[in-house]
Amino acid sequence: MKNIRYPLVFVALVLFLTSCGDKPAEQKSEPTQKVIQTKPVDPAKLTCALTVGWDPWEPYQYLTPDNQVRGLEIDLISSIAKEASCTITFIQNDWMRLLKGIRNGSIDMLGGASKTASREEFAYFSTPYRHESFVLYIRAEQKNEFAGKTLKQLLENKFKLGVTEDYIYGDEVSGFQDNPIIASQIIGVPITEMNYFNLIQHQVDGFLEDPFVAAYTIKRKGLAEQIIATTVGYDSGNVSFMFSKKSVSTEIVDAFNQGLKTIKASGEYDKILKKYSH
Length: 278
Description:
Layout: E1 3-4, H1 10-19, E2 35-37, E3 48-54, E4 62-63, E5 69-70, H2 72-83, E6 86-92, H3 95-104, E7 109-113, E8 123-125, E9 130-139, H4 143-146, H5 151-156, E10 161-164, H6 171-177, E11 186-189, H7 194-200, E12 206-209, H8 211-221, E13 227-244, H9 250-266, H10 268-275
Parallel strand pairs: 1-11, 3-6, 3-7, 10-11, 10-12
Antiparallel strand pairs: 2-6, 4-5, 7-13, 8-13, 9-12, 9-13
């Protein structure tokens, strides 16, 4: 079970999220009021219109200063949707609410989803389109203290671990989350950037993050001297596009799978990855 704790210094958190770096990601705790639509395809070819949920997770998905949704995931989805003759409307919210939307059909699709038996009860999954891993990040000042230790060893010594609610970190981490002895040491947050704040404020001793995302965020917030990566890492497996069974047909899922094949064959897929690898 996951133990959710929210910092009492919430005002300080808001200042942290908005003051570090010169391009903060917009966060919303209430259902989004912003809808951004991609350029429609030829109406003659139109076969579907999808509502795609997203939560800020740079460089995969973020909001630009001029209120445009951008990022690696956004570009991939837009390119595939064009091949599948679908129009896309992007809706921002936190991950837990977006998952609820997939369950009830108010959200048609999410990117970056790990396929699990429980999620298959309410969602279809596309062909996997990228691989995902997570690394443990700690305060730089404790580098020597934690060196050479596994996460299990750390947790056995009262280490407090930050995670993002309903993210899939792999079987070993899931086992830690379900262990009643150490579950209280695993601190869940609804927005991933809260983990950085909690670490700096000593609310947690470390957190798990996608290394691509962490490198991007640490650089943007100027935290390179305060937060460092450890050698502890987890492979959470392949990720897919997830579609609501209540609002999306299997034909649309098939169309996205074919669109993914098409952009890979054309080189568009590699072009998008390269764009965000620098």
